[in-house]
Amino acid sequence: xxxxxxxxxxxxxxxxxxxxxCSHNNIATNDYITWYQQFPSQGPRFIIQGYKTKVTNEVAxxxxxxxxxxxxxxxxxxxxxxxxxxxxxxxxxxxGAGSYQLTFGKGTKLSVIP
Amino acid sequence: EPEVTQTPSHQVTQMxxxxxxxxxxxxxHLYFYWYRQILxxxxxxxxxxxxxxxxxxxxxxxxxxxxERPDGSNFTLKIxxxxxxDSAMYFCASSEPPGVGIRGTEAFFGQGxxxxxx
Lengths: 114, 118
What we know:
CATH architecture of chain B: Sandwich
CATH class of chain B: Mainly Beta
Number of domains of chain B: 1
Number of helices of chain A: 0
Strand content of chain A: over 45%
Oligomer: heterodimer
CATH topology of chain B: Immunoglobulin-like
Number of domains of chain A: 1
Helix content of chain A: under 10%
CATH architecture of chain A: Sandwich
Radius of gyration of chain A: 14 Å
Number of strands of chain B: 11
Order of helices and strands of chain A: EEEEEEEEE
Radius of gyration of chain B: 14 Å
Largest sheet of chain A: 5 strands, mixed
Distance between the termini of chain A: 38 Å
Structural class of chain A: mainly beta
Shape of chain B: globular
CATH superfamily of chain B: Immunoglobulins
């Protein structure tokens, strides 16, 4: 599995756009990039997934450059409720064994300040 | 929105006792998982389950652990003879079959069971 590196923590004021970058230099051809969010004492929650270029949904945008060695999760106009840990995961969508084993790193702890 | 439900939310048990953690996955999902998170640490994969058998398991999932789908709705994790180091948050997750669009790869997690071994 490709190793991922992301900042341990970030602070942001309410209403600002937050960009969290993840490095994955050893990403493989069949790897996808997936971001999960985890609030304290809750299970992780899927945010967004992409393979290349840009993906946008109702929650976030994901920017992936052509070389795919990094990706940036963009959260528009964050609020206090966006305070959470954000995980970047890189791996094959289908592990070949009939399941999607997810490998979580330490994630980025985002603190939104009033 | 459909969700994965786990019971109990908290469980305190004495070292050496057996515990069963219960999960009700989302009804049309076919893949089921258990993960655990020791306080302040990473979320770790334990096991995945498909078609009534284990499809993958991690090194953590040793003979002390077992999983079962006793009926059409429940998915359980049994820990025999609990140890202090088993204290953690245990998350159940489920996902759709592959090939069901991009969201087929999304795992839905429950709220977790906090297990404390004393």
